[in-house]
Amino acid sequence: MEDILINWTPQETRVAVVENGAVQELHIERTLERGLVGNVYLGKVARVLPGMQSAFIDIGLERAAFLHVADLHLNGVNPRGHHGESGQATPIERLVYEGQALTVQVIKDPIGTKGARLSTQISIAGRLLVHLPQDNHIGISQKIGSPEARDALRARMQTLVSAGVQDGNTGGFILRTNAEEASDEELGADIAYLRKTWASIREKSLRQPPGSLLFQDLSLVERVLRDLASERTNSIRIDAKLQYDVVRQFGETYMPAATAKLELYRGERPIFDLNNIDAEIARALARRVDLKSGGYLIIDQTEAMTTIDVNTGGFVGARNFDDTIFKTNLEAAGAIARQLRLRNLGGIIIVDFIDMTREEHKTAVLQEFRKQLNRDRTKVTVGGFTQLGLVELTRKRTRESLARMLCEPCPTCEARGQVKTARSICYEIMREILRESRQFNPKEFRVVAAANVVEMLLDEESQHLAGLSDFIGKPISLTAEPTNQTEHYDIVLM
Fold first, then answer.
1. What is the pTM of this model?
2. pLDDT per residue over 191-200, tens digit each?
3. 390 lies in the same domain as 443
4. What domain range includes position 333?
């Protein structure tokens, strides 16, 4: 069983999913940086790129959003590809044109320097169903049981969808996992709500100018009831009376089962102190993750991929070295799966488990890893061990990771993760003085640098500095600037 804790302030909402006292997931939404996934806009085609089979769409954001031909759904054509009479894919330049207005939905938030990714296939999520207005397909969640149960649900849905048809456009629906035990009345109510929402979007698209927001997905607090609460949820505790009333009213209308687990937290201690969640957030930003056995993980996140290295550390508890490695890798498999959820790491992920010689150990570790990853709400695809003993996986990335949301690049090292030594800076300064002495003829060169650089120039590098001064025939003076970092210096021509 799991508990969901919600810490709300006017500027930020934080949600923690806690299982057996350990934080499994963290979700953070800031009022000024609210995610865009699920939002529907009336966009305007700003530029078509035939070479990339893509288009840039202006949806009123700072950066133009990105639409690939595979996500283009026009006139009932499946977004997996547009094909003409020849059977070949129709190029994007024949499907859209600059200045065209398109109703689009954000499927990936802007990440780093990349703009949002869009699709013209709109999907609207409800409590039990996901509505696909431009599609007539009825789908069933893969997590819903037997083929017989799936067929029965599909038959019920076809009857309900046909009963409420308007203007000959039924639209498609996907049944979510929690729809398996739903009654016809509940499914019918969800269908009506979703169709009404889509009708509102269409009506706005006809009278709003391009760049307008037509539909905004639920807030994080409301999405807790829709997406995070399940049969495994023991309680949902929120520490703000105002939001508690809002969510309860929303939940009683659409999600009464989840709303029954909602509690207002009135304790004196901050709600996140109950399970040391703030400390867990701090650990989730660290590069090193310690395992209970004494082993540890090293997690490095880059623009292209995330790498995770497993080490035995101080673990010597097994009878022989092979067993030590095997037990460390088994523990690491569960810890890595949890860290992926906790840090919301996405994209390409490479895991370097400790090398194992026995095939049965490799098989057992891979099985445990896949088992732990199956608990993830986000789609994860895992490969086997490569020739180099690495495990490759991809995790769907729809929003910024925890580190990218809470942190920014270090201004001292400029996100390199390291800085030059004081000696390197000394030599750099001397090369710069030599270069400038050939272009200018000042009376004196004055170096303004960090205290540790000036100290090294006066001590260990004093002989080299004196030799440079004699060579260029100009005096060199030094000034220590306490606010300067090691790499920051100025050379003033006097």
1. 0.73
2. 888 888 898 8
3. no
4. 285-406
